[in-house]
Amino acid sequence: MRIFRHDTVAAAERGAVVAIGNFDGVHLGHQAVIGETGRIARAQNAPLAVLTFEPHPRRVFRPDDPPFRLTPFRAKAQAIEALGVDLLVSLHFDHAFAQLSAEDFIDQVLVRHLGVRHVAIGFDFTFGHGRRGTATLLQAEGRARGFAVTVVEPVTAAGGAVYSATRIREHLVAGRPREAAALLGRFWEIEGRVERGDQRGRGIGFPTANLALDDYLRPAAGVYAVRAAVETEGGVLWHDGVANLGRRPTFGGSDLRLEVHLFDFDADLYGRHLRVALIEHLRPEQKFAGIDALKAQIAADAAQARAILKTTRAF
């Protein structure tokens, strides 16, 4: 997949069939939009493209909100690439861009710079200054400017709930990663570069790889059964483990950190990228009276996580 961080593509890549949206989480509803776009692209023998926006518009309009991203750009790009997309166009979103009218967005971005052949959007997608750009307006402008528009109707989960990034966030904040995974189509992951921590885990027999959460949503604090993907020259290898997400109250910690202990693993991970999938929330974070009590609880958590992961399959 080729990634463009601007709205101008090479002449050979004009005429794509383009899915437009923020796609935070790339959940099953988003996958339905991109999947329908792919079906159209294959039928027309055209490139399949996704057009998205960074940073997320919510970050621009509500900068004081706590972190909320399900998939920061790197994770979002990986999830989109896995769907067979040929081109990912990421437009820089700021207050100046937000002033662009819906008609100018269509004229400048879709027609002049991308030369779109066909556009697909979700049923609730809006765009342009004041969110004036609706599906109806886009369809009318498309007819006038020579490109087709498909509006993908809402896709519902079991029980009739519409797939929603908001609902996924609610599940994660409440410590329900399996329910979030049912809407995502995969277990939710936190990805980052392994940082040096206090190395207390190694001293008590449970070495950990430490990740900062950065722009990621803050899920429920506590202990999780996890699976972690370690990048190697030969690809990605998954390992079962147990992780603590929190501030380490037993040691008077203050910063929020994800500390991951991988079972039966002893390689140096400092500086390497790690993807950590949250499988099940085992318990809240707690403060212990001493190291011995902490070690005993970690051992119990590890045993519980092993048992859970032994019977858990990927989505």
Which keywords apply here?
six-stranded antiparallel beta sheet, 25% strand, single chain, elongated, alpha/beta, six-stranded parallel beta sheet, 12 strands, 315 residues
Write the layout of secondary structure elements.
Blueprint: E1 2-4, E2 17-20, H1 28-43, E3 48-54, H2 57-61, H3 73-81, E4 87-92, H4 95-98, H5 102-113, E5 118-122, H6 135-145, E6 148-152, H7 165-173, H8 177-184, E7 189-193, H9 200-203, E8 209-211, E9 222-232, E10 235-246, E11 257-262, E12 273-283, H10 291-310
Helix pairs in contact: 7-8
What does this entry look like structurally?
With 315 residues, the chain is of the alpha/beta class. 31% of the residues lie in helices and 25% in strands. It is built from ten helices and twelve strands. It has helices at residues 28-43, 57-61, 73-81, 95-98, 102-113, 135-145, 165-173, 177-184, 200-203, 291-310, and strands at 2-4, 17-20, 48-54, 87-92, 118-122, 148-152, 189-193, 209-211, 222-232, 235-246, 257-262, 273-283. The strands form two sheets. Strands 1-4-3-2-5-6 form a six-stranded parallel sheet, with helices on both faces. A six-stranded antiparallel sheet has the order 7-12-9-10-11-8. Helix 1 links the parallel strand 2 (17-20) and strand 3 (48-54). The two termini are 23 Å apart. The model has no long low-confidence stretch (mean pLDDT 93).
